[in-house]
Structures are given as C-alpha cells and as structure tokens.
Design a protein that fits this description.
Helices cover 24% and strands 26% of the residues. The protein is an alpha+beta fold and 178 residues long.
Length: 178
C-alpha cells in the first residue's frame, strides 16, 4: 500500500510543533521514573507524531481533550494548477473565521459560539462543543501565497491555493540510464 498518496507533503509539520506537549511529572525530572514508564511515554509521543503526519488526531486528542473537539476536519486535494483545501466548520459563521498567512503557513482560526440560552433552559445533555479553534498548514514550495482565495458556503470554508507551474517543472528532471 502506497501511503505517500495520503501525505505527499507534510502540511501539518508546524501544527504538530504548536501542539501542547504533555507535562513531565516531577519524579521523571529527578530520574526517579521507572524505565518502562519512560519507554511507554516515548512510544506515545512517537505514535502521536506519526498520526499527525497523516492528518489523524493524536491518541491524546481521541480521549476527551476539549480543544480537539473543536478542531475542524479538512480535506486537501492536489490539482495540476492549484491545491484545494476544504474545511468543515458547521455552526460557525463566516464573520467568526479568520484566515491569515504567516511565514508560508496558512493559519485558519475561528470560534464556535454557543447560542443564547434562557434561565428556563434545563439541559439534560450537552454534546456540542463551543470555543476557539486553530489549524496551521505549511504550504508546499510550489504554492503561490499571493494568489490564495477563500469562499464560505453551508458551513464549509474552501481555500484555493494556486501552484507555480515553473516550480514543479524545475523540480523535475530526467536522469539518463547508462
């Protein structure tokens, strides 16, 4: 199975660097932690990094980490002339989304606000999450940041990132076989 087609460019390398690191217990800093527990923590960190590279949530975020509940899911499609990024943000209004470019990184941030409730409301269960979210995508070298366009419709943010045709052509060369 060719996994390269799922992650040809590491769009998420800055996002994984931004992710909060688990705190190290005080006994670990003083060398009192068992070697087996240290190895377990190191394997967890390694698996989280691998999963993030393929755009999957880390193990820590699968089990109730509140900020991950607000993390919008996205699709990245590669075309000959552009990259097409679709971000699902249901329940978020266009005015609550901010799209910016920071050092060849596309930053998508926003906030999902809770509807106003009255004093008569007595909730039996709350499953929807509210709060801020942030996604950071590293643009490939052939992306043209000056031509990025975005649109919003039906809870989906669509971002079009044009590609520089000279950059893809200059990276490709034929190797003679002798």
């Amino acid at each position: 199975m060719n996994l390269q087609k799922f992650s040809p460019w590491n769009w998420f390398k800055s996002e994984s660097a931004d992710a909060p690191r688990p705190s190290v217990p005080a006994e670990a800093r003083h060398g009192e932690i068992s070697p087996l527990l240290g190895m377990h923590q190191e394997l967890d960190r390694w698996m989280d990094n691998v999963m993030r590279q393929f755009g999957m949530p880390s193990l820590g975020t699968r089990f109730g980490d509140v900020p991950s509940l607000l993390r919008p899911q996205l699709d990245i499609a590669e075309r000959d002339d552009e990259y097409l990024i679709s971000v699902e943000v249901p329940g978020v209004e266009e005015k609550d989304i901010k799209l910016s470019l920071e050092d060849h990184r596309l930053v998508i941030q926003g906030e999902k606000r809770q509807e106003s409730s009255s004093r008569e409301d007595r909730y039996q269960r709350i499953e929807r999450a509210y709060g801020s979210f942030r996604r950071v995508l590293d643009l490939p070298s052939d992306a043209r940041p000056d031509g990025i366009e975005a649109s919003f419709s039906n809870g989906v943010l669509t971002v079009r990132v044009p590609r520089n045709p000279e950059a893809t052509a200059s990276n490709r060369r034929e190797i003679p076989i002798r």
